């Protein structure tokens, strides 16, 4: 397993969002409508970079909807030159979900997440609709990046859909689909102190796919890249994971 064991991280700078403002280099954001192949309709948050996109990304949400955190994450990816779309993955059950991280938000998130299909196939179809939208907008290569639930969807997208690369942040259910084989390059990030994803689960994923780069950030727990949540956010781990992910996408998406 590729793992980061040092307690101190490189703090290489990115054009990250600060204080809830738009990221540097981000030109425009908007909401668009998507229709999946099975007829499901959903909204999606789109961010266009300054100038021509060097590649395109689907950003897949946590179980809290396309909330401020996911919009800021999409903004940050756009600041690195990517055309970004973040689909509302709960629109199948309930429209325009935008939850916080308090007790009520968690309860509602768990209720909604309980409606996901065990095989995640309808959710995979929804991600595919976002991929199709990107391919209609640009000839650039397309990747998927996701957080928590979205991290699992990034994995499944690499296994089931036509994309060029995927990155998953702390995808808690990846281990349940470890038997599936990615058809595109994948990078995974986990927190060493994640109470939701035990080391044994990470080990099973790595054993099944020794070719995949997996990074464990020992000073970080679950959702360490969630910048709006001081209880979860670990700035140095998030910065390094993002830096590695940007370089990974540039390697596999940009030619």
UniProtKB/TrEMBL annotation:
Domain Dienelactone hydrolase: 42-252
Any single Pfam family the record assigns to this protein: DLH
GO MF terms held by the record: hydrolase activity
Superkingdom per UniProt: Bacteria
Keywords in alphabetical order: Hydrolase
InterPro entries, alphabetized: AB_hydrolase_fold, Dienelactn_hydro, Dienelactone_hydrolase-like
UniProt keyword Hydrolase, yes or no: yes
UniProt protein name: Dienelactone hydrolase-like enzyme
């Amino acid at each position: 397993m590729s793992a980061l064991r040092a307690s101190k991280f490189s703090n290489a700078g990115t054009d990250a969002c600060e204080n809830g403002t738009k990221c540097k280099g981000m030109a425009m954001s908007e909401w668009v409508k998507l229709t999946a192949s099975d007829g499901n309709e959903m909204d999606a948050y789109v961010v266009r970079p300054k100038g021509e996109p060097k590649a395109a990304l689907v950003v897949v949400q946590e179980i809290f909807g396309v909330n401020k955190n996911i919009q800021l994450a999409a903004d940050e990816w756009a600041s690195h030159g990517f055309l970004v779309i973040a689909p509302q993955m709960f629109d199948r059950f309930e429209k325009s979900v935008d939850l916080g991280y308090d007790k009520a938000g968690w309860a509602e998130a768990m209720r909604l997440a309980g409606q996901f299909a065990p095989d995640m196939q309808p959710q995979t179809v929804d991600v595919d609709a976002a991929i199709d939208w990107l391919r209609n907008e640009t000839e650039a290569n397309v990747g998927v990046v996701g957080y928590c639930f979205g991290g699992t969807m990034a994995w499944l997208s690499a296994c089931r859909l036509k994309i060029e690369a995927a990155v998953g942040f702390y995808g808690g259910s990846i281990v349940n689909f470890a038997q599936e084989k990615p058809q595109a390059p994948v990078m995974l990030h986990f927190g060493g102190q994640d109470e939701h994803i035990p080391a044994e689960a990470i080990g099973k994923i790595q054993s099944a796919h020794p070719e995949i780069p997996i990074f464990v950030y020992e000073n970080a727990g679950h959702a360490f890249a969630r910048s709006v949540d001081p209880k979860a956010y670990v700035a140095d781990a998030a910065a390094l994971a993002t830096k590695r992910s940007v370089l990974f996408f540039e390697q596999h998406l940009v030619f």
